[in-house]
Amino acid sequence: MSDLLVIEFPSEAKAEGVREMLLAMQKEYLIELGDAVVAVKDDRGRVKLNQLFQPVAQGAVSGMLWGSLIGLLFMMPLAGAAVGAASGALRGRLADLGINDAFMRQASRTLQSGNAALFLLIRKMTTDKVLAALHGAGGAVMRSSFDETKEEALRAALAGVRAASGEARS
To answer: Can you state the angle between helices 148-158 and 160-169, rounded to 10 degrees?
Structure first.
């Protein structure tokens, strides 16, 4: 079973930085992500999704390759490539894996202009090491499917910078 986590950050760069850190942790087998998307709300209120995996584009490229190979058999490689690209793109559109794009756009409408949200579909994670890495990253949890104790630990880890700076001023 996977967990969904949505964290709001004050900038796109901060959200991208945390996503890159989590992807590096994935290479160390500390976390397994099903999807990691950064959503940004611009000044006009439009939401842009920065996805790692583009199933429509990959389906079109794959379909074009296979279509041209099959088209070569029938002496029509260009027609085969066109049909293959169209069918591959359609297949990619229908097989959109990960977090639902409509859900991400809806959830991102609550962002302030210029802010970004990091959507994570977490399959597995070593909680203590991931939370230690997120310590002081900033951001606020918008939505989570974690249990209450895990979510509270995550909120404390993200707020670590604010807590430390508040103690330094005292």
So the answer is: 50
Q: What backbone phi and psi angles, to 5 degrees, belong to 83?
A: -65, -40
Interatomic CA distance for residues 169 and 165, integer angstroms: 6
What string of H, E and C letters represents the secondary structure of 100-160? CHHHHHHHHCCCCCCCEEEEEEEEEECHHHHHHHHCCCCCEEEEECCCHHHHHHHHHHHCH
What count of Cα atoms within 13 Å lies in the side-chain half-sphere of residue 101?
A: 15
Q: pTM score, two decimals?
A: 0.69
Give per-residue pLDDT as tens, 140-151: 888 888 888 888
Of 119, 84, 116, nearest in space to 99 by CA? 119
Give pLDDT, residue 64: 63
CA–CA separation, 5 and 10 (whole Å)? 17
Contact 157, 22 (CB under 8 A): no
Alpha-carbon span 143 to 125, nearest angstrom: 18
